[in-house]
Specification:
elongated, single chain, mainly alpha, about 70% helix
């Protein structure tokens, strides 16, 4: 990895070959989720803060919480899948019911009977079709 430092003004620039340090910089960048340029900038300007020893504890705690989240995800994934299947089944049934209501109203018109307007049933059908 080659580091080039350019001044804000003027023509002077410094180029440095990092060699073995580039691997360490890449590891730090990946570990903390920042670009390698930012790691170099922090190292050169001395912006970094000293750890109070809590960092390792926090990392362990976050790893434990992540494991717990994945365990819960494993438990609830099948339930979500079943719920999705049921909601799709409800949509299909709502479509079929809507068709049957339309057919029933058409037959009522043919027999010269007043059409059956069940608003609650139509609201329920629209609810299942939306979600």
């Amino acid at each position: 990895m080659k580091l080039t430092i350019k001044p804000d003004r003027g023509f002077g620039k410094v180029e440095v070959e990092l060699g073995e340090l580039s691997a360490e910089i890449e590891k730090l960048a990946e570990r903390y989720g920042v670009p390698p340029e930012r790691i170099i900038e922090i190292a050169l300007t001395g912006e970094f803060k000293k750890s109070k020893g809590e960092l390792e504890q926090l990392e362990k705690k976050s790893e434990e919480l992540e494991k717990k989240v994945w365990r819960l995800e494993k438990e609830y994934a099948p339930l979500r899948y079943k719920a999705y299947g049921l909601s799709e089944d409800n949509k299909i049934l709502a479509i079929e019911l809507s068709g049957l209501i339309a057919e029933n109203n058409q037959l009522r018109r043919f027999l010269r009977l007043p059409p059956n307007r069940n608003l609650e049933l139509r609201k329920l059908i629209s609810y299942y079709l939306q979600g």
